[in-house]
Amino acid sequence: MRQFGAPGILGHMQDGIRVRGRLMGKRIELDEEVEDLEGEVEVVVRPAAQSETAGERFLDVVGGLPAGTRSKDDIDQQLREARAEWNDRG
Question: Is the per-residue pLDDT at 22 higher than 70?
Answer without folding.
Answer: yes
